[in-house]
Design goal:
The protein is mainly α. 70% of the residues lie in helices and 0% in strands. The protein has ten helices and no strands. Helix 3 packs antiparallel against helix 4, helix 3 runs antiparallel to helix 7 and helix 5 packs across helix 8.
């Protein structure tokens, strides 16, 4: 019984720290955990997406509702435990939804519960960034797996929330929930730019316990993320680095839409050609 309690306390890590060393990024434990979470994510997205594809919008939205409650609920529990048991009453200031992945804590509930154009914009935003966040926040989260054991509340909740965003991003097109209308593109860009501006301001205005500058949206430094490439070119903490990160986001959106429209145009041409050939044969 004592061993079980100790294991539970060590999982949460808020009772004096973790006794187990971090296995490290790209360790077999990290990769096994990521393969499991992403594999489950892909299976559920394909299965539920195909099952609900021809159903009404209310039915299609139910998996997104469950996802919204799951990822927001897990994150709130983790933050609450940190504030209480780690004796960090202001710890939540470091967990605001101001990272690219955590924007989905807001956009997925909007996509699930909203109606009309607001719902369309939120669905498109989740579609554009869901899978990117899932991969970056699991396979690419070197900073977490180098700092905490794989089976710890930090990495398990992070795996659930990022895989949840990835599930939504994959489920939406399979269930035919996306609109990807050109008139909504400025809003997708606008949401991202607005979060970047707010994050940059918050980084320099919210106090930290050790006096360092916060790093929401990784606009200040890479912190062992793939942004280390830009950090190596421009240097951490520089305006040029911050701008390059924002431009990388913008470029990604442009490429995503470009590839999407190219694929759909080719698909439609193929269908039209097939229909034309059928008419000729008739």
């Amino acid at each position: 019984m004592n061993a079980i309690l100790e294991a539970i306390k060590d999982f949460f890590g808020y009772y004096g720290g973790y006794k187990r060393p971090a296995e490290g990024a790209l360790s077999w434990q990290h990769l096994l955990f990521v393969c499991f979470t992403l594999g489950l994510m892909i299976f559920l997205a394909i299965y539920l997406g195909k099952r609900n594809r021809n159903k009404d919008i209310k039915t299609k939205s139910k998996p997104l509702i469950v996802t919204a409650f799951l990822i927001d609920g897990c994150e709130l529990i983790r933050i609450t435990l940190r504030c209480i048991f780690a004796n960090e009453p202001l710890g939540w200031l470091g967990d605001l939804p101001l990272y690219l992945c955590s924007i989905q804590f807001i956009t997925i509930p909007v996509a699930a519960f909203a109606k009309g154009r607001v719902k369309q914009i939120a669905l498109d935003f989740v579609f554009v960034f869901g899978l990117l966040g899932a991969v970056a926040g699991t396979i690419g989260a070197f900073q977490n797996y180098n700092a905490y054991p794989v089976l710890s509340i930090k990495n398990v909740v992070s795996g659930i929330t990022h895989a949840g965003a990835g599930f939504a991003g994959l489920y939406i097109p399979i269930a035919n929930l996306h609109s990807m209308k050109k008139k909504n593109i400025p809003w997708v860009f606008g949401i991202l730019i607005a979060f970047c501006i707010v994050s940059y301001i918050v980084n320099f205005t919210l106090p930290t316990s050790d006096g360092t500058v916060r790093n929401y949206m990784f606009l200040i430094r890479s912190d062992d993320t793939p942004y280390f490439i830009l950090e190596g070119i421009f240097g951490a903490g520089t305006i040029a680095y911050s701008i390059s990160v924002v431009l990388a986001f913008v470029l990604y959106i442009a490429l995503f839409y470009g590839v999407y429209y190219y694929i759909t145009r080719k698909h439609n041409q193929k269908i039209n050609h097939s229909n034309h050939q059928t008419e000729i044969s008739l």
